Amino acid sequence: MIRLRIDLGYDGTDFSGWASQPDRRTVQGELTAALTTILRTEVLVQVTCAGRTDAGVHARGQVVHVDVSDEVYAGLPGRSLRTPEGALAARLRGLLPADVVVRAVSLAPEGFDARFSALSRRYRYVICDNPAHLDPLRVRETVVHPRGLDAELMSAAAESLTGLHDFAAFCRRREGATTIRTLLRYEWKRVGPGLLEATVVADAFCHSMVRALVGVVVPVGEGREPVSFAADVLTAGVRDPRVKVMPAHGLVLEEVAYPAEGDLAARAGEARRTRRGDEVG
User: Fold this and answer.
1) CB 203: neighbour CB atoms within 10 A?
2) Domains in the chain, CATH or no CATH each
3) 138: which DSSP letter?
4) CA angle centred on 66, ends 65 and 72, rounded to 5°
5) What is the DSSP letter of 230?
6) Is 263 an active-site residue?
7) How far does CA 133 lie from the centroid of its chain?
8) pLDDT digits (tens, 9 = 90+) for 68-102
9) How far apart, in whole angstroms, are the C-alpha atoms of residue 229 and residue 216?
10) Packing angle between helix 229-236 and helix 209-222, nearest 10 degrees?
């Protein structure tokens, strides 16, 4: 089998998230349907992504891998002079809807796994706190907030959450899944009149974690809670009713980072190891 890496982006507005669901339009559903048609398989093609985005969440830097047989790989160009990777990229662009864009298809290095080989995922969250400055061309990726926000206070609160922690207070629990993560970077800045952006980077994220991390600093930015509020919620380890899980459409998966080719397999093995509570300092 040959493993191919597919880099893609999508507008998540009209999708019920990444993961396939019966009778729901999903990004995975569109991609697997297109691949199944192109590869002419009798069973639905299976793909693995770097981050399973929720309904309404967008992506510019999603990464996927798919395994194909040597014979199928060799036959992808047909009678054209394109490489198998170039041929697959062109045919996917011809079949996928306009809100899914294939940026590149490449031969995956030895040991590559789109999910487990990843070192980190970088997300961006956008808030407009002055509707008079809302850009109508960006409404599908911008959350409008009715009150003014202090980006410096929000960033100070956000920074207190970085490091290796149990983020149970910011995750929807799933049976058998750990909530221990390493938040590598979390900061806020004002990028224009009425416009704030967050950068959130972690080795991995739990379900709804990024939107809850945004929700815990918004009341700080409003002046309703002290800067210490975010760290207090983290320490408590339980969901706090004062923390709102923010709307999905303000969130964009911007980038997935991977190690050097020689370290891909080792990283995948490390990521598969379940973290324990006693590892949190």
Assistant:
1) 19
2) 2-107 (3.30.70.580), 120-260 (3.30.70.660)
3) G
4) 145
5) H
6) no
7) 27
8) 999 999 999 998 899 999 999 999 999 999 999 99
9) 8
10) 140
Question: Among residues 54, 129, 166, 203, which one is catalytic?
Answer: 54
pLDDT tens digits, 18-54: 999 999 999 999 999 999 999 998 889 999 999 999 9
80 phi-psi bin (left φ>0, alpha ψ -120 to 50, beta other):
beta
What is the identity of the amino acid at 91?
Answer: R
- The CA-based angle 243-244-247, given to 5 degrees, is 150
Measured between alpha carbons, how far is residue 46 from residues 16, 169, 186 in Å? Answer: 18, 33, 33
Distance set, CA 225 to CA 127, 154, 157, 219, 220 (Å): 19, 10, 10, 6, 5
| DSSP-derived pairing of the beta strands 120-128 and 143-144 | parallel
Tokens 């062109």, residue located: 90
Structure tokens at 157: 């609160």
Q: Mind listing the pLDDT tens digit for each residue in 99-111?
A: 999 999 999 999 9
Tokens read off for 130? 């002055």
How many whole angstroms separate alpha carbon 112 and alpha carbon 5? 9
